[in-house]
C-alpha cells in the first residue's frame, strides 16, 4: 500500500479549469477535511464515480468553488482511490488548492508517479505505461494511433502469446531434465520446434518494424542533397511553404543543427541541416560533396536532386556514389526547362520524380513517394499491424530472438538439454523485460522521468 500523492494535472498557466488530482487510500479522508458539497451530504455519503459541486475550505476560509470527482479503487487509473478537484484554472488558484491538499495529508507526486502506480498496481504493463508517455508527446495523428494500439495492450498480447509458446517448450524440457529415467531422447517434439520457429519469426518481424515505428514517432530525418545550383534551396522553400512547419528548432548556436519539421500526411518530416541549403543575404553556402556525405549517413531518407537543364558531371556522380540505394528518392528538378540531362549512369536510384521547384510542379508526387517510403517501404509485410516504436522493446526482442536461435544451434549440435533450458530462460526473461514483469528501479526511474507532473 502506498501513501497518498497529489499534483496539478493540467498545464500551468491561466485556463478555464485546473485539475488537482489525488491518488491513495487517504484521498477521501483528505477530501472530508476540505470539501463541503452544496448538497450538504458528508463526503462519505457521496456516490462512487460521481461529480460533486461544492466549496473547498481551508479552516473557515473558502478557497474555491469546485467540482469534485470521486473514483474509488480498484476500477481507476491507479487502482487506488482517486479524487480529482476541478477548480478555477488560474495559476495561483490551482497552486492554492494543491497546497491545501498537501497540508491536509497528501504528498506531492513525483513526475509520472500516477502512471508508475498504475504499473506497480498491475493496471498497466510497462509497454502500456510507455504508450501513455508517447501519447502525451505525440505530434502527429499517425504516432498517436500507434501509441493508442500499444496502450490498448496489443504489444503485451503479442508478448504473452510468445511467452506461452516458450513456456510449453520449457515444460517439456523440464520433464526431460527432471525425469531422465523416462528415457525421452527425442530432444523436442515437432510442435514445440514449431513454437520456437514462430518466436524467431515474430520477434524478427517486430524488430524490423522498429525503423518504421521510429520514423512515425520521431520523424523521418530527411536530407536534401545535390551539387550547387540544382535547386535544393528552392525545393526546401516550396516544401516549407506548402506544409505547415511544426517546429523550427535551433539548438545551440551553430547554424548547422537547424532542423525544420513539417507534417506530411501525419508523418513528421525532419528536414536536417536546412541551414546549409537555405540562402539568405548573409548566408550563401552550399552543400559540397563532403558535406553531402555526412548528411547521407545521418538521414533516414535522402532526396537526391539533379538539374534537368544541365548535363551530369563529376560532382553529381560523386554524390551518387555515396548514396545508399535503399533510402533515396531521386528528384529531377527544373523540368520546366529544356532537358540536357541523361540519368542513365545514376543506377542506384530506383525511383525518379520529375519536379520543378520553381513552378511547383511534381511536389505532390514527391510527397506521395516520401509517404509510401515510410509507410510501406521499410517493412517487408506492409499489412503487419503491430509496429514497435521503442528502442527498449527492440533490444529486448533481439535478445529473445538470439536466445532462441542459440537453442536451434544446441539442437543441431546435439548438445545436452540443460543448455536449452538456459537459453529458454534467457528468452523468457527478455520477453518479461518488455512488459515490465522483470524490471529494476533504475529502469523505471528512467522511463517515468519522461512523464510530466500529474500524469
Ligand atoms: P541550390 O544551390 O541547389 O540550393 O539551388 P537554388 O535553389 O539556389 O537554385 C539555383 C538556381 O536555380 C536559382 O536561380 C533558382 O531560381 C533556379 N531554380 C531552382 N529550381 C528551379 C526550377 O524548378 N526551374 C528553373 N527553371 N529554375 C530553378
UniProtKB/TrEMBL annotation:
GO MF terms held by the record: GTP binding; GTPase activity; identical protein binding; metal ion binding
InterPro entries in the cross-refs: G_TrmE (IPR031168), GTP-bd (IPR006073), GTP-bd_TrmE_N (IPR018948), GTPase_MnmE (IPR004520), MnmE_dom2 (IPR027368), MnmE_helical (IPR025867), P-loop_NTPase (IPR027417), Small_GTP-bd (IPR005225)
GO BP term, example: tRNA methylation
Domain of life of the organism encoding this protein: Bacteria
Places the protein is found: Cytoplasm
Sequence similarity: Belongs to the TRAFAC class TrmE-Era-EngA-EngB-Septin-like GTPase superfamily. TrmE GTPase family.
Annotated function: Exhibits a very high intrinsic GTPase hydrolysis rate. Involved in the addition of a carboxymethylaminomethyl (cmnm) group at the wobble position (U34) of certain tRNAs, forming tRNA-cmnm(5)s(2)U34.
Protein name: tRNA modification GTPase MnmE
Organism: Cetobacterium somerae ATCC BAA-474
Lineage, highest ranks first: Bacteria, Fusobacteriati, Fusobacteriota, Fusobacteriia, Fusobacteriales
Gene: mnmE
Amino acid at each position: 500500500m502506498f501513501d497518498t500523492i497529489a499534483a496539478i494535472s493540467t498545464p500551468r498557466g491561466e485556463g478555464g479549469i485546473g485539475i488537482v488530482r489525488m491518488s491513495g487510500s487517504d484521498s477521501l479522508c483528505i477530501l472530508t477535511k476540505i470539501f463541503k458539497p452544496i448538497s450538504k451530504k458528508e463526503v462519505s455519503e457521496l456516490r462512487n464515480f460521481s461529480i460533486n459541486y461544492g466549496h473547498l475550505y481551508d479552516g473557515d476560509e473558502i478557497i474555491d468553488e469546485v467540482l469534485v470527482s470521486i473514483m474509488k479503487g480498484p476500477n481507476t487509473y491507479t487502482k487506488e482511490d482517486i479524487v480529482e478537484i476541478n477548480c478555477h484554472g488560474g495559476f495561483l488558484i490551482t497552486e492554492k488548492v494543491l497546497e491545501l491538499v498537501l497540508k491536509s495529508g497528501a504528498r506531492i507526486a513525483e513526475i509520472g508517479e500516477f502512471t508508475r502506480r498504475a504499473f506497480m498496481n498491475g493496471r498497466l504493463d510497462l509497454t502500456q505505461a510507455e504508450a501513455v508517455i508517447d501519447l502525451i508527446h505525440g505530434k502527429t495523428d499517425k504516432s498517436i494511433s500507434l501509441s493508442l494500439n500499444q496502450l490498448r495492450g496489443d504489444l503485451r498480447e503479442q508478448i504473452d502469446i510468445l511467452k506461452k509458446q516458450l513456456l510449453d517448450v520449457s515444460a517439456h524440457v523440464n520433464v526431460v531434465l527432471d525425469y531422465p529415467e523416462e528415457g525421452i531422447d527425442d530432444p523436442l517434439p515437432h510442435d514445440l520446434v514449431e513454437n520456437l520457429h514462430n518466436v524467431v519469426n515474430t520477434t524478427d518481424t517486430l524488430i524490423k518494424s522498429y525503423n518504421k515505428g521510429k520514423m512515425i514517432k520521431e520523424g523521418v530525418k530527411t536530407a536534401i542533397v545535390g551539387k550547387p545550383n540544382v535547386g535544393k534551396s528552392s525545393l526546401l522553400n516550396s516544401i516549407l511553404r506548402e506544409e505547415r512547419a511544426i517546429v523550427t528548432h535551433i539548438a545551440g548556436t551553430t547554424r548547422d543543427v537547424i532542423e525544420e519539421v513539417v507534417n506530411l500526411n501525419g508523418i513528421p518530416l525532419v528536414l536536417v541541416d536546412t541551414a546549409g541549403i537555405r540562402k539568405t543575404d548573409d548566408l550563401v553556402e552550399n552543400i559540397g560533396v563532403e558535406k553531402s556525405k555526412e548528411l547521407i549517413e545521418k538521414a533516414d531518407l535522402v532526396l537526391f536532386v539533379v538539374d534537368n537543364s544541365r548535363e551530369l558531371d563529376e560532382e553529381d556522380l560523386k554524390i551518387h556514389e555515396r548514396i545508399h540505394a535503399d533510402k533515396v528518392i531521386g528528384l529531377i528538378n527544373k523540368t520546366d526547362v529544356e532537358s540536357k540531362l541523361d540519368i542513365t549512369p545514376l543506377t542506384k536510384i530506383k525511383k525518379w520524380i520529375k519536379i520543378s521547384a520553381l513552378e511547383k510542379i511534381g511536389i505532390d508526387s514527391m510527397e506521395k513517394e516520401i509517404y509510401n517510403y515510410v509507410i510501406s517501404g521499410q517493412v517487408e509485410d506492409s499489412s503487419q499491424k503491430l509496429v514497435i516504436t521503442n528502442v527498449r522493446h527492440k533490444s529486448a526482442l533481439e535478445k529473445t530472438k538470439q536466445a532462441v536461435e542459440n537453442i536451434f544451434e544446441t539442437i543441431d549440435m546435439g548438445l545436452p538439454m540443460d543448455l536449452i533450458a538456459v537459453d529458454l530462460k534467457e528468452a523468457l526473461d527478455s520477453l518479461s523485460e518488455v512488459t515490465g514483469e522483470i524490471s529494476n528501479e533504475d529502469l523505471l526511474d528512467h522511463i517515468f522521468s519522461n512523464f510530466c507532473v500529474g500524469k
